[in-house]
Design brief:
With about 300 residues, the protein is an all-alpha fold. Among the domains are: about 1-65 and about 80-135, Serine Threonine Protein Phosphatase 5, Tetratricopeptide repeat (Alpha Horseshoe); about 220-305, Serine Threonine Protein Phosphatase 5, Tetratricopeptide repeat (Alpha Horseshoe). It contains 18 helices and no strands. Helix 13 runs antiparallel to helix 14 (about 225-235) and helix 16 (about 260-270) runs antiparallel to helix 17. The radius of gyration is 23 Å and the shape is globular. The chain starts with a helix and ends with a helix. The model is unreliable at about 60-80 (pLDDT under 50).
C-alpha cells in the first residue's frame, strides 16, 4: 500500500495559534498544504513561527516566565523561539509539510522542536511516530504512538499508527486489535476500516477483509487504498475484470500506488494482455524498484499455469 499516503492521512494539524497574523498565516499554510503546494505551505508556517516568537519577545511576560527588568530577561528573550508554546502547533504543521515532501529529517526536527516546547502534545507524538515509521524505525515509532495513547486514550489516529508499526513488525494480531479499537472509536474513519481489512486479509480472513474494504469505499469513495485492497481480493478470486477496474480507480485517485500497477499488471498477464502487463510492471518498478523480484516470481507462476 502507499505508506506515505496513509501516514499523511493519519497525521494531524493544529489551528491553536492565538495571534491574528500568525493564525492567518497558519490557515493559509494549511490551505496551501491541502492544495499540494508544500513549499508555499512551509513558507507560510515559517512566517507564522516567526510571528509568534516576535510577539512573545514583545510581551510583558515572555514565554519563559521572566518579567521585564529582571536580570535574566535579555538572555531569556534570545531563546524564546525555542520555548514559545504557541510555536509548537505551527512546528507540527510545518513538519507535516516536510513529511509530505519526503524530507523526513526536517520533519522530525520540527516534531522534536514542538515536543520540546510541549511534552504533553499527543498530536506531535503521532506525527513524529509516522515519520519514524516511514524510516522503518519501528521501536521508536511504536514508543511515540504509545506516548500519544497514554496522553489521549481516545485518539484513534494513534491506534492506527501503532497498528501499522505492529503490522510491519510482524505482530498481525496486535495490529488488528489496534485497528479494530480505532474503528470502535471512529466507526466512520475509512482509513481505520481499511487497515482492519488489510490485517484480516493478511491472516486469510478474505470475506471479512472484503467487507471492510467495501465499507471503507462507502465511507470515503476517494480513498484509493480501499480500491487496492478490494482489487487484491478480487484478483485472488480470479475476478480479473473487477480487479482491473479497482486498480484503475485506485490509480486514478493516486498515481503513486506502485502496488496497484503491479497487481493490475498481473491481472492483465493472466488475461494474456502481455503488452498492457509489461507497461504496468514498468510503471511499478519506476515507483518501487524493490518489487522486481516479486513481479518476476508472479510471472513465472502464471507461465507455469499455461503449461
Amino acid at each position: 500500500m502507499s505508506r506515505l499516503y496513509i501516514l499523511v492521512v493519519i497525521i494531524s494539524f493544529s489551528l491553536n495559534v492565538h495571534t491574528q497574523s500568525a493564525e492567518d498565516l497558519n490557515r493559509r499554510g494549511l490551505r496551501n498544504y491541502q492544495h499540494g503546494d508544500y513549499d508555499a505551505a512551509i513558507a507560510d508556517f515559517s512566517k507564522a513561527i516567526d510571528a509568534v516568537t516576535r510577539l512573545a519577545k514583545q510581551n510583558s511576560v515572555p514565554a519563559n516566565g521572566f518579567a521585564p527588568g529582571q536580570e535574566l530577561f535579555e538572555a531569556a528573550a534570545t531563546s524564546v523561539r525555542a520555548v514559545d508554546p504557541r510555536a509548537s502547533d505551527v512546528l507540527v504543521n510545518r513538519g507535516n509539510a516536510f513529511l509530505a515532501k519526503g524530507d523526513l529529517g526536517r520533519a522530525i526536527e520540527d516534531y522534536n522542536g514542538a515536543l520540546a516546547i510541549r511534552p504533553t502534545f499527543a498530536v506531535g507524538y503521532v506525527c513524529r511516530g509516522s515519520a519514524l515509521l516511514i524510516k522503518n524505525d519501528l521501536p521508536r515509532a511504536i514508543a511515540d504512538y504509545e506516548k500519544a495513547i497514554k496522553l489521549d486514550p481516545q485518539y484513534a489516529k494513534a491506534y492506527i499508527g501503532r497498528g501499522m508499526a505492529r503490522l510491519d513488525s510482524g505482530d498481525t494480531r496486535a495490529a488488528f486489535e489496534d485497528f479494530d479499537f480505532a474503528v470502535r472509536l471512529e466507526p466512520k474513519n475509512a482509513n481505520a476500516v481499511y487497515q482492519r481489512g488489510d490485517a484480516r486479509r493478511l491472516v486469510g480472513d478474505f470475506a471479512a477483509a472484503l467487507a471492510d474494504f467495501e465499507l471503507a469505499i462507502r465511507l470515503d469513495p476517494a480513498y484509493p487504498d480501499s480500491y487496492l485492497g478490494r482489487g487484491t481480493i478480487r484478483l485472488r478470486d480470479k475476478d480479473l475484470n473487477g480487479a482491473i477496474a479497482d486498480f484503475t480507480t485506485a490509480l486514478t485517485l493516486d498515481p503513486r500506488l506502485a502496488q496497484a500497477y503491479r497487481n493490475r499488471g498481473i491481472a492483465y498477464y493472466v488475461q494474456g494482455k502481455t503488452a498492457e502487463a509489461q507497461r504496468d510492471f514498468a510503471r511499478a518498478l519506476i515507483l518501487a524498484p524493490y518489487l522486481r523480484a516479486e513481479i518476476e516470481a508472479n510471472v513465472k507462476i502464471i507461465e507455469s499455469w499455461k503449461k
